[in-house]
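Q: what does this look like with adenosine-5'-diphosphate bound?
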Amino acid sequence: MRIAVYPGSFDPITLGHLNLIKRAARIFDKVYVCVMVNSGKKPWFTLEERMEFIQRCIERFGNVEVEYSDKLLVEYAKSRGATVIVKGLRAVTDFEMEFQMALTNSKLEPGIETVFLTASEKYTYLSSTIVREMAKYNADLSQFVPREIKDDLINKLQNRR
Ligand code: ADP
């Protein structure tokens, strides 16, 4: 059984993330979407909110689960029996950092491979940062985030102001 982990901050999940999840779910038997608790970043959405948004979007897939981890990524992957870390590449600007992380992870745990999927050309421009910026100005988010979370996302941000 091929188990993969798709890690990120998902603050919030975008259509770009969901596209990657869908494709990874076709390649691997099981995919764990893992919200990484990264003390260096101050997220807009709480861990619970981010996980709940993801949960709503992955319900249609039988082999995808959402979890979180505050451990080292390879430790989390090992704990789930995963042999693959899935990452998305949007542009060359993603490459350097991702390459460095993939090599570091392979030093820590040679049994785990990082597999890069190229972003769909429809979503190469899309990031959670863009979504947060658009949401601040009450822009229509239909082209950026899954419909399952669009309204809630705006409501949550507006109630917070
Ligand atoms: P962001 O970089 O948007 O803050 P994350 O840290 O949550 O997002 O990213 C998690 C993973 O998803 C990374 O591997 C990232 O390259 C990938 N990813 C992010 N946005 C997209 C997109 N639009 N298309 C494909 N992959 C993406």
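The beta strands are 3-8, 30-36, 64-69, 84-89, 113-118. Residues 8-10, 14, 16-17, 20, 87-88, 90, 94, 119, 123, 126-128 surround adenosine-5'-diphosphate (CB under 6 Å).
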